[in-house]
Amino acid sequence: MSHRRILSTLAGLAAAALAVPAYAATPADAPSATQSSTSSSIAAYTGSPQDKAATKAFYDAVIKSARAKQAQQAKAGKKPSAAVTVTYAVDAPSFQSEINSSTSIWNSSVGNVTLVEGSNYDFYYTEGNDPRGSYASTDGHGRGYIFLDYAQSQQYDPTRITAHETGHVLGLPDHYSGPCSELMSGGGPGPSCTNPYPDATERARVDQLWANGFTAR
Ligand SMILES: [Zn+2]
């Protein structure tokens, strides 16, 4: 199917891309109670400054792409909508229902940005096996993608993983030390945490990041 081939090519091009931290470290990487909080394994588990830069790069790329399309529509005389529309493609057939759930969760949680599946996309979902688990990735100057890992999605709730990674696209960084009620705590609270909803602070942050989305300043 040609659509899938195009996406695979894009994934190949983005291979050298910055990766936002994986959804969760493997259990072996989890800090033990006796480990010092300054050890490097814990720094990796909770995210590094480089990971935060990657999250910001992905958000910057997506908002730039969405705004460019809005500007084109405005030129064509179309009335702008209040929310910025971010369009995605799905090259992850096993996760279609989780992606649909993630989209409705986000669209009912925030008002300044709307996720829509379609062509001329700003980012896409793909799937496979990766020892790093699931992650969001960008080349820093264009489109990004969300990788959903098979093995991790059997250990952790796949809808929470998908909504969490989508949170990166919307500009939220990881916060592994947070409680299960936070979406961006990711795998931090452990596999028993299945909450796929952003909390009030996360929702407010996304609305803040996408406020004035139409007026590119
Ligand atoms: Zn994450």
Automatic annotation (TrEMBL):
S-S pairs: 180-193
Residues that bind Zn(2+): 164, 168, 174
GO biological process, any: proteolysis
Binding site for Ca(2+): 157, 159
Cofactor(s) this protein cannot do without: Zn(2+); Ca(2+)
One cellular component term from this protein's GO annotations in UniProt: extracellular region
EC number: 3.4.24.77
Keywords: Calcium, Hydrolase, Metal-binding, Metalloprotease, Protease, Signal, Zinc
PROSITE patterns: TAT
Signal peptide: 1-24
Keyword Signal part of the UniProt annotation: yes
Cofactor detail note: Binds 1 zinc ion per subunit.
EC supergroup of this enzyme: hydrolase
Family matches, as Gene3D superfamilies: Collagenase (Catalytic Domain)
Pfam families cross-referenced by the UniProt entry: Peptidase_M7
UniProt key word Electron transport: no
GO MF annotations in UniProt: metalloendopeptidase activity; zinc ion binding
Annotated catalysed reactions: Hydrolyzes proteins with a preference for Tyr or Phe in the P1' position. Has no action on amino-acid p-nitroanilides
Active site residues of this protein: 165
Family, per entry: Belongs to the peptidase M7 family.
Protein name: Extracellular small neutral protease
Originating organism: Kribbella caucasensis
UniProt lineage: Bacteria, Bacillati, Actinomycetota, Actinomycetes, Propionibacteriales
